Amino acid sequence: MENIIKHLNTNFDNSLEELKEYLRIPSISTSPEHSKDMVKCAEFLANKLRNIGLTNVEVFSTEKHPIVYGQWIGAPDKPTVLIYGHYDVQPVDPIEKWSFPPFEPKIEKGKLWGRGANDNKGQQFAHIKSVEAFFKNYGAPPVNVKFLIEGEEEIGSGSLSKFISKHKELLKCDAILISDTSMYAPGVPTITYGLRGLLYMEVEFSGPKADLHSGSFGGAVANPVNELAKMIAKLHDKNGRVTVPNFYKDVLRLSKAEKENFRRLKFSDAKFAKELGVKALAGEKGYTTLERLWVRPTLDCNGIVGGFTGEGAKTIIPSKASAKISMRLVPNQNPQKIAADFTKYVKSLAPEGIKVDVKMIHYGYPVVVPLEDKAVQTAAKAVSKAFGKKAVFTREGGSIPIVVEFMNQLKAPAILMGLGLDTDNIHSPNEHFELANLKKGMIASAYFLKEFSEMKG
Amino acid sequence: MENIIKHLNTNFDNSLEELKEYLRIPSISTSPEHSKDMVKCAEFLANKLRNIGLTNVEVFSTEKHPIVYGQWIGAPDKPTVLIYGHYDVQPVDPIEKWSFPPFEPKIEKGKLWGRGANDNKGQQFAHIKSVEAFFKNYGAPPVNVKFLIEGEEEIGSGSLSKFISKHKELLKCDAILISDTSMYAPGVPTITYGLRGLLYMEVEFSGPKADLHSGSFGGAVANPVNELAKMIAKLHDKNGRVTVPNFYKDVLRLSKAEKENFRRLKFSDAKFAKELGVKALAGEKGYTTLERLWVRPTLDCNGIVGGFTGEGAKTIIPSKASAKISMRLVPNQNPQKIAADFTKYVKSLAPEGIKVDVKMIHYGYPVVVPLEDKAVQTAAKAVSKAFGKKAVFTREGGSIPIVVEFMNQLKAPAILMGLGLDTDNIHSPNEHFELANLKKGMIASAYFLKEFSEMKG
Question: Which CDD domains has this protein been placed in (chains A, B) (predicted)?
């Protein structure tokens, strides 16, 4: 391992330059105008995988954005790890809030800045570089390695889901290694063993067939913006609980052991509120903040728009208004069942003069990995060594729907080795990634590959 | 009057040609690139007023667009009427929806087509031509006449407001005659005696200092979109009444006579709903549609925006959300008092984790002219004669803020003699004006001048 660590340290600056090149490609999966950038990004990545020494590197085209695959399976008596990542990134709006162009990455204050610096180009690079280090120093990694990097994570992994069920043999593995989560705190190595699921809906309320003059018509018709607001207001009760029928029916109760594990993490509400710039936290009554974030389901409006939104005044009753509403789900909630209940409920909340359209944008199941799994314990050891501190086990509020697919289809445990920080502004302006975490992440990845090679047989 | 009517009929085709010349000038007040056209239009109008026989015709320059004034005050023992209009027009976008070039007026299907054909060049032309007819036939009109035609009505009458308070003596009059409203129905002569006021506010809710990942943070913080929606929902009670404290305190109760007057208008809810493309009407319980439109105050969101509003999904808790919220006011509500109550109330409706900013965009007082006013009754007689049908008295839901200024500053009643139809597409593509209404409007104007001359002394 000494050679490997030395190699990673010596070549770190070069690695950063390569990563910056990767970040310069504006691979925003949700924007049709970036579809060419998605192809460009996939090709770039495929070349990178070929260059580090992988074989069978292929860019699979899909109905939407390409999937990149590469492998080295030269050790039939050793276990196989599937390393997953995504090369697509979130949109950059509000663009005016960035202090630099999001696709012109830079190194500053010990951080790498740019859209995708953390999520997920930066985090996945840790594994690419650790595998490369083994190839360069020993001609091969100590275990069989398969890389699978998709371009639709930020929009629901639609193509990857089909790809997995079609290529189960190709993707066969003993563990799935994913770095797409956060560390519990700066300097605290973390293995995440649970993720919330997601259900993302869009609701449109339509009233009069065109915008109306609010003077000539105000008082006579239901206003789609006001009615949409009323509907949204009804989605929570006064205790912050979601009112969609059956919403809590299948929710797994938190065990005493887990409650105790959470308590040991000594989460500070005051510090958290300060970091977010809010005077007070909020949410479902009767639960601690960590419980609300990790094991309780939630409902949030992600966006709303309707009528006149420019400078000054326009006196209209808007013809329509719409909102994006998403729910974070926990084991054992079923997103599809909840989508049906949500749709029916929302329609019941509109008055007669309003036409309601509800559509599902995407969903993902919640997941929890057994803590006692050997691969998970091996990963905890690896990060503990790399970061020089005992790893903690956490759950996370976010969703990686594909993790459930992986576990169900490939029958292997998923290891969530988060290298980012909550303060890295992923999905927001000024996204960044700590250089120290990137470097230690590379080393942790190397430790994992080494230790994992000794696990089987 | 026979000579006058004969003159107006005989010269109608020439009048139309003159009006078309007027319509060819693209006097769009909101567009800086049309500022030269505004001057050209004012000069054209001033020449027109000189040519019909008025004296002291002057183009007053202002901070923005010129104001045109002209008078004949040769009958000191007779009353004085101030005729108001505006030569500016609305923008023409969406230009692709016009079936002809908006500034190339044409006569077709008994209508004059072009931007400004109704609003307001066409309507004001009725008065210019009736005054001309008196000059041509009798050397002078039967009353003192003052024309005041501005170029900023479509952008808030900013300069006119100052002009009125500066020139109270010049503008002194016994009644203000305005044709800038609509007839109740085709063929039904109409005098409008009330307009609602307006209070236009903007509210912003701010939560976390940046957009947050809705997975990592959902459940822990107040979401500005959800909270804004909750606040908006609370602005009405279940009977559709506005809940802002003191909102209804000063509202003038509808008299029995007025209620009866409204009933006689035989308004059809079903027809109205069909025109607007809605399944059902809505609004404050306990009032008819006409009452809700004309004499009851309302509150509407004119626009709302927050978070991600593009295609697809972005899983954020937005940092902020804002809404434009306007209220239509009725006598004797005070917009400034209500603005203060609204601001305080809205702030009280937000939870601790949300920062609230409320600002007032603009306001205008409501107005009602006493029905029994002699000038108003005279106008009703005049339109009844010209249209051969008994006039109806209506109020209107919209606001013409300058009308209140006129009444307050000049201490004279305003007569709203609408000659247009709701279906004339003012402010929209393919604006037009019925030739029959233009001609009858000229005759109605002449009858009014004649009858008004007999009112005083």
Answer: M20_dipept_like
Chain-chain contact of A353 with B272 (C-beta, under 8 angstroms): no
Q: Nearest C-alpha of chain A: how many angstroms from B13? A: 33
CA dihedral B370, B371, B372, B377 (to 10 degrees): 120
CATH class of B197-251+297-364: alpha beta
Residue B286 contacts A, CB cutoff 8 Å: no
Q: 3.10.20.810, 3.30.70.360, 1.20.1050.10, 3.40.50.300: which CATH number matches A197-251+297-363?
A: 3.30.70.360
Q: Where are the domains of chain A?
A: 2-195+366-453, 197-251+297-363
Give percent of chain A with pLDDT exceeding 70. Answer: 100
Residues A99-134 have pLDDT tens digits of: 999 999 999 999 999 999 999 999 999 999 999 999
CA dist., res. A367 & res. A296, Å (int)? 13
What DSSP letter does each residue of B7-22 carry, written as one string? HHHHTHHHHHHHHHHH
B2-195+366-453, superfamily in CATH?
Zn peptidases (3.40.630.10)
Report the range out of A224-228, B90-94, B312-316 with the highest average pLDDT.
A224-228
pLDDT tens-place string over residues B236-278: 999 999 999 999 999 998 888 888 889 999 999 999 999 999 9
| B residues 414-443 lying closer than 8 A (beta carbon) to A | 422, 427
Of B395, B181, B397, which is closest to residue A219 (Cα–Cα)? B397
| A313, B156 contact by CB (below 8 A) | no
Q: Are A241 and A338 in contact (CB under 8 A)?
A: no
Q: Identify each DSSP E strand in B406-456 by its residue range.
A: 414-418, 432-434
Contacts of B228 in chain A (CB under 8 A): 229, 304
Instruction: Retrieve residue B280's tokens.
Output: 């059902």
- Residue A261: asked if its preceding bond is cis (omega within 30°), the reply is no
